[in-house]
Each structure stands twice: as C-alpha cells, then as structure tokens.
Design a protein that fits this description.
mainly alpha, 104 residues, signal, elongated, 6 helices
Length: 104
C-alpha cells in the first residue's frame, strides 16, 4: 500500500486580474481573451476588464426589451420616490429613449 502523505497548505497570492480570471467560467474567459483581447499576461486592472465585459454585454442586449422594461416599470411598495425616479432614469438610459420621450 502507498503511504499517505500530508501536504502543507500553501497560500497563493494572486494579482487582481488573475483572481478575476479564476472566477470566470470558461465561456466568459474565452470572451475576455478573444473578443475583448485581454490576455492572461496582460497587466490590465480588474475594474477595466469588468467595464469591458459590461460594455460587451450591453451591446448584446436587445433595445426593444429595454424599452418594454421601461414601459412596464412601476414603483414597488417599499421603494421611495427618489429610488423609483433613479431606477426609471437608469432604464431611460438603457432603453435609449429620445430626449422628448424621457421628459414625458
């Protein structure tokens, strides 16, 4: 029988970018490396990678669905007027409503 050897636990400190890459699934990792052109030896900040991912996903969203979400938006019971206004403002931006539409 083979001997059981206990290994000392080791701690590996990772740079922010490496830690981020380890947290991504394989599909998103491929997107980051191929579509967004961030390689593993790149020294890009994690916040820059996350911003690029957000922009990439935003381009994949459907504008019509964003407009439907805006039209169907209602204030929830526990939401303040200011919170509701800010949420509507964000939806206005993602739905790309014209200035006249967003003022009405």
């Amino acid at each position: 029988m083979g001997q059981l050897r206990l290994l000392k636990p080791t701690v590996v400190l990772l740079s922010g970018g490496a830690a981020l890459r380890l947290s991504l699934d394989i599909t998103m990792l491929q997107t980051v490396e191929v579509a967004l052109n961030f390689t593993s030896n790149n020294t890009t900040l994690p916040s820059e990678i996350l911003d690029a991912i957000a922009d990439h996903i935003r381009l994949k969203r459907n504008l019509a669905l964003d407009r439907v979400a805006f039209e169907e938006c209602h204030q929830s019971a526990n939401e303040t007027c200011n919170e509701f206004f800010l949420r509507l403002k964000r939806l206005t931006e993602t739905a790309e409503l014209c200035a006249r539409c967003s003022d009405e």
